[in-house]
Structures are given as structure tokens and as C-alpha cells.
Write a structure and sequence with these properties.
This protein is α/β, with parallel strands linked by helices and 174 residues long. The chain contains five helices and five strands; from the N terminus they run αββααβαββα. Strands 2-1-3-4-5 form a five-stranded mixed sheet. Helix 1 packs parallel to helix 5.
Length: 174
């Protein structure tokens, strides 16, 4: 009797979906890093698995402290929907959101947050703070963590390492 693969479960299908969109977020993060911004990418998926918005960090490009990938993607998704309530949407982001972004995510009533790697310095969803589950939060946010965590972490580490090396070369140049 030949071995047959069992049919994919709903969990398998969700994992594939999460990985697919996180790969897109990684591509956006790479573009942001190439443009001189910290490589963070975000994608908002709406009902029907449709891309509503995508963005990479643009703080340096725009000279705007609020131009984080998550905020830019949430703004565009709300504009696309004509509604700031994003309760039927999923946000994929390569790095755990900071306090500003976590606040915007909660306020948008996002349906699901999926992030790649934790931020041990300023993560505000699970690592340092937990804004979605705080008593002051008016929305309970489902969260999935660790999707493609290693590539997300490596991308950030590589970018910061290259930046430090460039700074050292600049300092050592006559």
C-alpha cells in the first residue's frame, strides 16, 4: 500500500498563507533598507486575500518620524476601504511593532496581526510591552508571531552590521 499524503489541514493552509505574505513583507523591507531606511516591510491583506496596501519604512526618505511601514500601510488600507475599521484585515510585518505602531494597530480594530521577529528593545505587542492586551486597550487583537522569524531577524542584523561597518570605514578614512 503506497503512502499517501494526508490532505492539508486548515492550519497548514494558514501557515502557507502567512509565509506567502511575510515573504512579500520581506521584499518590501529589503527595498526600504536599500533606500537607507531600517528594513521593515508591511502588507495589509483584506477580505478575499486581496492586497489593500503595502509599505516599507520611509522615515529617512520622508523625514517623517511616523513613516513606519505599519502606519503607512494602515493609512493606505483604510483609504482603499473607505473605512478606518480594519477588522476584516490582516497586517503582516517583518518586525514586532513599536508603541506608536501598536497603538495605531489597536485603534484600527485590525482583525489579525502577524509579525516575523520580536523586537527586544521596543516591541510593544509581546516583547517589552503588550499594548493589545493592556487594560487601556479598546480592542483585543489576535496575534501570530514567528512567521519566517529567522529571515526577518537576519535581514535586520545584516543591515545594521553593514551600516556599522560603513560608519567605521568613514571614521577611519583620512
Amino acid at each position: 500500500m503506497p503512502y499517501e499524503m494526508p490532505p492539508p489541514t486548515l492550519e497548514d493552509e494558514l501557515d502557507l498563507r502567512h509565509r506567502r505574505w511575510m515573504l512579500r513583507a520581506l521584499e518590501l523591507a529589503d527595498l526600504a533598507g536599500s533606500a537607507g531606511d531600517v528594513p521593515v516591510g508591511a502588507v495589509v491583506i483584506g477580505p478575499g486575500d486581496v492586497v489593500l496596501a503595502e509599505a516599507g519604512n520611509r522615515r529617512e526618505q520622508d523625514q517623517d518620524p511616523t513613516a513606519h511601514a505599519e502606519v503607512l500601510a494602515l493609512r493606505e488600507a483604510a483609504r482603499q476601504l473607505g473605512n478606518w475599521h480594519l477588522n476584516e484585515c490582516t497586517l503582516y510585518v517583518t518586525l514586532e511593532p513599536c508603541p506608536m505602531c501598536a497603538g495605531a494597530i489597536v485603534l484600527s480594530r485590525l482583525g489579525l496581526l502577524v509579525y516575523g521577529t520580536a523586537d527586544p528593545k521596543s516591541g510593544a505587542v509581546r516583547s517589552v510591552l503588550n499594548l493589545p492586551d493592556a487594560p487601556s486597550s479598546n480592542h483585543r487583537l489576535p496575534v501570530v508571531t514567528g512567521i519566517l522569524a529567522e529571515p526577518c531577524r537576519e535581514q535586520l542584523q545584516r543591515w545594521f552590521q553593514q551600516r556599522r561597518q560603513a560608519q567605521r570605514r568613514k571614521t577611519l578614512s583620512p
